[in-house]
Amino acid sequence: MPNRITYHSSSDNLNDFANDGSLLFTTSRNFKQVEWDHELETVSSTGGTPTLLLDAIGEMPSKSPDGKFIAFAMGFGRVTREAYHGSANYEIWLYNTEKKSYSKLTDYDGHDIYPRWGDNSTIYYISSKSGKYNIHKVIIDENGKQIGVDNQITGYEDDGIRYFNISKDGSTIVFERQTDIYKLNLSDNSINKVNIEISSDYRFDPTEYKTFTDKMDEYKVSPNGKYSAFVIRGEIFISENDKDKSRTANLSNHPYRDQNPAWLNDSTLIFISDREGQNDIYLVKSDDTKESNLFKTLKHKIVRLTETDKDESFPVISPDGNKIAYEIGRGKLVVSDIDKNGKMKNEIVLLDGWAIPGNVSWSPDSKWLAYSLDDLYFNSEIFIQPIDKSIEPVNISMHPRSDTSPVWSKDGSKLAFLSQRNNSNSDVWFVWLKKEDWEKTKTDWDEYEKPKTDKKKKKKDADSTKVEPIKIDTKKIYEILSQLTNCARDENNIEFAKDGETIFFTAKSPTEKGIDIFSIKWDGKDIKSLTKGESSPSSLTIDRDGKYLYYNSKGKLNRIEIKSEKKESLSFAAKMIINFPKEKEQKFEEAWRALNEGFYDPNFHGQNWIDLKAKYKPWCLSASTDNDFQDMFNIMLGELNASHMAMRSNDEREDLQKEKTGLLGITVEPNKDGVKVTHVVPSSPADKENSKLFIGDEIVSVNGMTTKGNINFYSLFTNTSDEKMLLSVNRDDKQKEIVIRPTSSLSNELYDEWVENNSKLVDKYSNGKLGYLHIKSMNMPSFEKFEREFTAKGYGKDGIVIDVRYNGGGWTTDYLMTVLNYKQHAYTIPRGAAKNLTTEKEKFREYYPFGERLPFAAWSKPSIALCNQNSYSNAEIFSHAYKNLGIGKLVGLPTFGAVISTGARSLIDGSYVRMPFRGWFVKADNTNMDFVPAVPDIIVYNNPDSKAKGEDPQLKRAVEELLKGLK
Questions:
Q1: DSSP letter assigned to residue 554
Q2: How far is CA 364 from the centre of its chain?
Q3: Which of 60, 246, 690, 912 has the fewest CB atoms within 10 Å, i.e. the most exposed one?
Q4: CB 555 within 8 Å of CB 215
């Protein structure tokens, strides 16, 4: 039986089985706080509690045969990005265990990875120096200094080496390249392919019969309200809208991806499919002359309606059922006539640009379309456009904040949409389509009576598709807007009741956990919650009769009867056959096409994307697991040499045991009686008043179980989060019992500890003159904390140190620039502060009511900024801006070089691929930020053990430089 060695819910990645029987691995415990590299730990191969291997972070550790040196890599990034050059590239370092000193072995500005020992003085590693990953060799002396030159052992020029290892006697290297394993004989450098013949043996069945009762994605209610069509895992299903009936019919039954269902009529469904290699419009109807009902028939006929050289997507059928709007490629919006059999004619191109129109919506009279559209400032506006193109598109929102998701009222009086124009939250706004309605006063509306409708005429109209044309006053229509909601967070999922007076939406509940559905009258009255503690409701839809409000709740279809507000869940049992080999091909094609259409550089950074597909597709399809498929696809993405790129598979077939380690907030090392505490994380369970542990405490048992010998201390805390645990502790020659409640995460506590240590260093280095603040991420919570901390950390200080090291990015740089780049133009003196304004006024020159007069409080005193190789994305934009706008000096290391706007495209099985869709360029010199980092004015390196020694040379130099400017 295998012997389990490590126990921790953090990933433990084995790197070396050393000659002394120890295992070297990377992990995240308590030594790693905000850093992106891992901590390096070691544990005996016979078991026991792991301990820190080095007082430095890094990757890929390997111990020399005699144990004198430990080689490891420092850096960060995707090793699949073979052509990366930048400050975050991996370099090989050596640690001398006798002298307890570090030295850098390689200094190439690309990746040097996977150090391996041939003998006590020979190190092999992989490097991209030649343009492709090849194996290199370097000889060191007894002090770890390189002797002679680096030797390249392999010389592949097309496909590099992905991984290698070396035999214990140092005679043979085995390596992985393309889809094969090779042996390299080091005596003569001969290379031979290892012929591996393994009989096929499926770990999982290639096909699987599954029945889904949730995981619904898109859905559409039929015009008569009796059925719903919906999508699960790329299949179109239909079910009855009856809570007691779960039978479900599979309409598409195809291993590729079918999506975007739209009802042409009660017996015909339109959808999008890529079954012919690209997205086209298809129709499905009954193929039984005796049974036209799409749900009841056992024969379905699928017809391909379009066959262009571009993808079609997002079909929307007009309310009268006679027209279809859809998108072609990127940015082309068209409308066509369509008959009941799906025949399309009289195509009209409404838009043909670069931006993709969003949330295309038909007016109730089938004569207008509404949609949102980005401009080159990436401001989204709402447009309406007549389908006969009698006038140009009309911008009804006209605002520099995002406006999206237009929805017409059923009575043709209003158009609602989401807008961020108030406090940057998404609120529900609407525009009156007729100016006379907007001009009515409250009294006018109170006195207004709707015209009485003849019941016979109403029934006749209900049986027809004729709708009165709506009237729209387009002139300066953007001036007659009304804000309807103003909740604490974003509102979403707008839908109108049939009468046009009530609007439904989702928002964060003020009383329940999570998101709920609310209704509100158009005048802001009668707001109420229709659900309580609902599971993330989305995609609100009202049926044609206006009786039910449908919504998706965590993949299940639900509805609310509007009159009674009664809620019910509509069950379904969607059966399908998942053909995993075919689905694997679908994932590859879908992800490749997404990047083919969406990657920001149409020249793919000089690579031939079509050739890369031909090369990598067979390799990806030969992968036997989702992880292997993902890894091979990511190697292909690495060829593009761009940041923010990855495929992530969902590994849903892996049925693995789930464990979560209860964390105390301590670092321990084994001793003869158990384990000794060597560090306590502030504010962790071990730092609470009733469960305090101290450095030097010896924990001898946990819940009566011993901690000494080969017992792994962490194994005693498996799945114990928030459970009371009894520790027996030796302290000052006395034994005491401590009851402690472990937590599931220490990320916040570790981050706060790192920040607090830096604050103390700045206070020490500056003799209390400067403040310090770290920006954790470029998001709104971090910005709001940043704004608060200017008061807390900058209060009474002469200047402040701003740190964006280890900041992974986001979007708030320009908010920060607003705060930091403000130029004070006046100062104020209130009554009572000065006895004589003439003689004392200059004492008040630095005082101005910033918080009163500005959207964000401003910092007008001197500052300095810190960045490093792990300042990423928007943190790099901040660093570029801080330097180029002359706000202050930049100190540290060049940033990563990874600035692209990115999103993600979901794939058929729930996997996704990142989508870099917009490039960023420095205005000062036109450089592409994805290749050119922000370079500090003053470059300072921190030693690998600086943190362990309680030092920070980068921080110290920043303080010294800022103090110079204050003199």
A1: T
A2: 37
A3: 690
A4: yes
Structure tokens at 569: 């869940």
User: Would you say residue 451 has pLDDT above 70?
Assistant: no
The Cα 427–Cα 414 span in angstroms is 16
Distance in angstroms (rounded) separating the CA atoms of residues 316 and 332: 14
What is the spatial distance between Cα 304 and Cα 249, in angstroms, rounded to a whole number?
Answer: 20
Q: Which amino acid belongs to residue 423?
A: N
Residue 473 scores a pLDDT above 80:
yes
Contact of 356 with 258, CB cutoff 8 Å: no
Secondary structure class of 479 (helix, strand, coil): helix
The structure tokens 């179980």 sit at 705
What is the pTM for the complete model shown?
0.91
| Count of Cβ atoms closer than 10 Å to residue 533 Cβ | 12
What do you get for the CA distance between the two ends of the chain, in Å?
Answer: 70
Backbone φ, ψ for residue 509 (5° rounding): -75, 135
Strands 556-561 and 566-570: antiparallel
When comparing pLDDT for 308 and 645, which is higher? 645
Based on the number of CB atoms within 10 Å of its own CB, is 78 exposed (0-12), middle (13-18) or buried (19 or more)?
middle
- What would the two tokens of residue 954 be? 């980068």
- The two beta strands, 890-892 and 938-939, are parallel
pLDDT at 460: 53
Ordered strands of the 13-17 beta sheet:
13-17, 22-27, 38-44, 51-63, 69-74, 91-96, 101-104
3-state secondary structure string, 234-248? Answer: CEEEEEECCCCCCEE
Query: Of 420, 400, 395, whose CA–CA distance to 491 is shortest?
Result: 420
pLDDT digits (tens, 9 = 90+) for 582-614: 999 999 999 999 999 999 999 999 999 999 999
Cα angle, residue 294 at apex, residues 270 and 313 outer, rounded to 5°:
10
For residue 469, give both structure tokens.
Answer: 């044309």
Using alpha carbons only, give the angle 710, 713, 715 rounded to the nearest 5 degrees.
95
